[in-house]
Amino acid sequence: MAKPIEWKITRLPSRGPKPGQSQESFLRGKAQGDKKWDRTREQNFNKLLNPTQKPKDANSNT
């Protein structure tokens, strides 16, 4: 008979600096991450507003 699955409980990390990390370092990394998400969000939003045309079929003559 197979052993039952042992479920492990893991704690989610806090939303602050890691142990030993300075607040300044944490905020600098957070600012860089926020800028990246702003660029990604804008690109995705532009894709929704301006969907690209479907590529033409290679076999068609038009």
Features:
62 residues, 1 helix, 44% helix
How would you classify the helix and strand content by structural class?
A: mainly alpha
- Unreliable spans are none
Q: Provide the succession of SSEs.
A: H
- Binned, the helix content reads 40-55%
Distance between the termini: 65 Å
* Number of H- or I-type helical stretches: 1
Secondary structure: number of strands: 0
What form results from the Cα inertia axes?
flat
Task: Determine the oligomeric state from the structure.
Answer: single chain
SS strand fraction: under 5%
Whole-number average pLDDT?
A: 81
* Rg on CA atoms, Å: 24 Å
Largest sheet: number of strands, sense, barrel closure: none
Structure description:
The chain is mainly α and 62 residues long. It has a domain at 23-49. The protein has one helix at residues 23-49. The protein is flat, with a radius of gyration of 24 Å. Helix content is 44%, strand content 0%. The chain starts with 22 loop residues before the first helix and ends in a 13-residue tail after the last helix.
